[in-house]
Amino acid sequence: MTTSREATECALLSPDLNRLPDTLRHIHLMGICGTGMASLAGMLKEKGYRITGSDKNVYPPMSLFLESLHIPVCNGYRAENLHPEPDLVIVGNVITRKNPEAVALASLRLPYLSFPQAIGHFALEGRRSIVVSGTHGKTTTSALIAWILEQAGIDPGFMIGGIPVNFGKNYKTGNGPYFVIEGDEYDTAFFDKGPKFLHYRPWITILTSIEFDHADIYRDLDHVIDSFRRLIALIPSKGLLIANGDDAIVRREISKALCRTETYGYADDNYWRAEDVSIREAFTRLTLLKEREVIPFSTSLYGRHNMSNLLASVVLGRTLDIPWTTIEEAARTFLGVKRRQEIIGERNGVLVLDDFAHHPTAVTETLRAVRDKYRDRRLIAVFEPRSNSSRRKIFQRQYALSFDAADRTFIPEPPLMEGIPVDERFSSRQLVMDLNRRGLEASYHETTDLLLESLVQETCPGDVVLIMSNGGFDRIHQRLLEALEERGR
Asked: Is 436 exposed, middle or buried (0-12, 13-18, 19+ CB in 10 A)?
């Protein structure tokens, strides 16, 4: 039985208030500094609403972005942030039941929505939704699709989990009939533990891959698969499922779809295939095959995984009857996504790259891609286990097989371990021992500072340093460049 004290400390939101209000002028976003929430705030501001927000992590770049839009942000969560009372509150999935602002929201009985519900109401209404889903490749694929539609003059709307370089921001309201949305399988909110993508009303769905991830919310692989089954079931019979036929789990699951499906990949039994992939100078060149059609492509993207992302985007483009020449030009002029094999800088002959890779498969594929691109240079991998899954031992063994393409690997102690039970924690020390046992050169460093000190000492002209983390990693990228420049004086 819940005591009165416990009730006042936990938000007990009324399901009847989980809706749009009759009158809507002022919208407040709780957790506004998250990438998606800040972008939603920008979209809503463009639509003419008065926007306010709150967060406990108010710092650049999101703080500067929101400031540029003249959106006031309260630093910290407090009941008084809801005064004067907004007409609607959008609750980010970082908010817990015990958040004091959430408790105040329940007490004031204000209408509320989750982030995905808000996307559904404000971005997808009256449009056909293109949902890009899967464990890997969502961001690059979404960005490339948006660029193809843009080049075709379709004026798409989009919401993407990274910043496409061609657009300079990760959202666009657009006036065209399509909205491209990155379909995340992470949970929606504390009052809705279902995956976000179930709110995105899929008309066309891209399914890139299915693997176990998000160990903080999914029990096992079967639990993850069940979420994707629910997404596939939402696609209307007149819709379309574009799926990576090289993924065995994806192959199995798309057989249950009620809509038309098209597969892509490298295997011969895919409807769309990639062949003759090679890197020449600044571009990757490949041939796309569809039945009797043979189409040469060039792209600045590189790596087997990115060619798969390109294939998915091409299939989407052709499905919408976009001319081959337009798709080819979009592929050639696509500049990628920030934090995806992004060149941060080069100092004294040392090239520094940044990538968001954190899942073992993503680490493996990213390293292979960079190895192939810079085959004549020494490749140094710097990996921070920071995601909710990578800080748990669930992938301990898999990571030991993920760094073979690197000539040298640096691993720090994972951050934010306090909330993870001791017997569930990932061990960076163990990973380094396992890599060394396999004959790979790797070292453990207790802090980022100690790692950076060793990294600066060991790097030589000609090296490529690939830094992988899904967080800021204590600004190690810029600090490394600064240290290399200082060393060269």
From this structure: middle
For domain 342-487, give the CATH superfamily: Mur ligase, C-terminal domain (3.90.190.20)
DSSP 13: -
Closest residue by Cα to residue 330 from 149, 155, 164, 176: 149
Cβ density class 95-119: b for 16+ within 10 Å, e for less: beeebebbbbbbeeebbbbbbbbbb
Assigned token pair, 217: 């919310």
3-state secondary structure of 74: strand
Residue 32 CA, chain-centre distance (Å), reads 17
Cα–chain-centroid distance for residue 400? Answer: 24
| pLDDT (0 to 100) of residue 7 | 41
Rounded Cα gap, residues 351 and 17, in angstroms = 53
Residue 296 has a CB neighbour count (10 Å cut-off) of 10
Beta carbons within 10 angstroms of residue 68's beta carbon: 9
The pair of three-digit structure tokens given for residue 1, joined into one six-digit string: 């039985």
What CATH number belongs to 17-114?
3.40.50.720
Tell me how far apart the alpha carbons of residues 298 and 301 are, in angstroms, rounded to a whole number. Answer: 9
Q: How far is CA 269 from CA 211, 265, 335, 420, in A?
A: 22, 9, 31, 43
Angstrom distance (rounded) from CA 307 to CA 38? 30
Which tens digits make up the pLDDT trace of 25-71? 999 999 999 888 999 999 999 999 999 999 997 766 778 888 989 99
* Distance in angstroms (rounded) separating the CA atoms of residues 273 and 267: 7
pLDDT tens per residue, range 178-212:
999 999 998 999 999 999 999 999 999 999 999 99
Q: Which residues of 31-41 are buried (b: 16+ CB within 10 A; e: fewer)?
A: bbbbbbbbbbb
How many secondary structure helices (H) and strands (E) does the chain include?
15, 23
Task: Return the half-sphere exposure (C-beta side, CA atoms, 13 A cut-off) of residue 222.
Answer: 0
Region 123-333: CATH code: 3.40.1190.10
**Alpha helix positions (H), 349-425:** 360-373, 396-399
Contact 105, 90 (CB under 8 A): no
Which residues partner with 132 through β-bridges? 182, 206
Work out the burial of residue 197: count CB atoms within 10 Å of its CB; fewer than 13 is exposed, 13-18 middle, 19 or more buried: buried
Greatest alpha-carbon pair distance for the chain in Å reads 71
Strands (DSSP E) contained in 48-126 are 50-55, 73-75, 88-91, 112-114
Q: Which two tokens stand for residue 255?
A: 């057989």
The strand pair at 293-299 and 342-347 is best described as unpaired
Query: Are 243 and 261 contacting, i.e. CB atoms less than 8 angstroms apart?
Result: yes
Domain limits of the chain? Answer: 17-114, 123-333, 342-487
pTM: 0.90
